[in-house]
Design a protein that fits this description.
Blueprint (H helix, E strand, L loop, with lengths): L3 H4 L14 E4 L8 E3 L23 H14 L3 E6 L9 H14 L4 E6 L8 H6 L2 E7 L5 H7 E6 L2 E4 H21 L3 E8 L8 H10 L4 E6 L16 H11 L17 E2 L7 H11 L11 E4 L6 E2 L8 E8 L2 E9 L7 H10 L3 E6 L4 H9 L4 E3 L2 E2 H10 L34
Parallel strand pairs: 1-3, 3-4, 4-5, 5-8, 8-9, 11-15, 15-16
Antiparallel strand pairs: 1-10, 2-6, 6-7, 11-13, 12-17, 13-14
Helix pairs in contact: 2-3, 2-9, 3-11, 5-6, 7-8, 10-11
Bound molecules: iron/sulfur cluster (2 copies).
Amino acid sequence: MAADTERAQHPCFSGDARHKFGRVHLPVAGKCNIRCNYCNRKYDCAAESRPGVTSAVLSPAQAVAYLEDVLARRPDISVAGIAGPGDPFATPQETIATLRLVRAAFPDLLLCVATNGLRIGPYLDTLAALAVGYVTVTVNAVDAAVGARLYGWVRDGAEVLPGPKAADLLANRQLEAISGLKARDVTVKVNVIVVPGVNDDHVGAVAQAVAERGADMMNCMPLYPVADTPFADLPQPSPELIAEVRAEARRFLPTMEHCTRCRADAVGMLGEPMTAEASGKLSDYAALPLDAGDTRPYVAVASREGALVNQHLGEAAHVLIYGQADGAPRLCEMRPTPAPGTGVSRWLELAATLHDCRALLVSRAGEAPMEVLTREGIAVRETCGVIVDSVSAIYAGRPLPGPAAPRASCSGDGCSESGDGCLGAGNGCG
Ligand code: SF4
Ligand code: SF4
């Protein structure tokens, strides 16, 4: 667990610290991999304070530039957190890249992440190496039947699971994540969204299960019914119900009593309203080049014929290495990719081969190479389109011009979005 002196500076983990220290959320996690029935990330209003709401989603480089600005103006801020607007590990490349940049620029800043826990597992060592000292995992149920009423679906890689199967997988991953975080000495808070008539009589079971895995604290958050969600018409839990539920949770571990249901772009002291000025700052940084800080000279591309980004990474026997000459992309060389069949070593070797590349453009990449390359600091971008246009966009820090290729195996069961990197329809992280 983080040293007491450190915890005394985290406004969420210490009741006293909230009067002295602030936090800033870096909204770099734009997508989600599950659908919570209370969550809607589609609305932005500076006056609205709830998880999932942000005025802009930033790239890692934009986020660190924004953070520099915030910290110069707000010396009372002790923590930088990533809490949405989606889940940080639905887009792990952005999350890990942001944490790396922030840690390099601000070695003493407390780092914090809030997640649904589904896909954090492969990144536990990386988080520990980056001294991410605080993680919040939202666990709403540890029983599949209860969870099936809370979640529409869970997407694990290319597979989309509905109902009890989804809830079962999610609960198991969440409990494993808590154990894994505690094994790495990370301070863990568990959020539970209290939904009357659905999980309000189940919070004790959640508290017991997470306490057994070593969780440090629990935050019982009242449901905030949001329009266009399955729970839009449910009542908010009464203060009396929340008090009862917290008392039940306290039988197993301490509870947080001062949660202010922060936005994904919250900045300042807990409860400090989002001002038009703060929202404007965020928009200013969102307009900066995406990767302004990356000085690696090359961009790698997987292509079948050398004109389009159109090859799956697993099929590429070589990648094209583009540089820049007179401001235009220029093909410099071809580099062979490591032979298949060596598991993770193949991707570690590829990361070493591409050490001087700021991005790898592919039509699609599997989960294993995505995770390994991301951990090794290579940004893998899935896209399709003309190579020179895509490479130019990377150098200019613009969004890629081509769409991501459709992921045929995503059934999108219960999914209200496209199914490809679908935006879940709501929120309660943080
Ligand atoms: Fe994803 Fe929203 Fe659930 Fe958070 S609350 S895990 S953003 S669906
Ligand atoms: Fe971390 Fe959540 Fe507090 Fe933000 S609100 S600093 S993510 S615990």
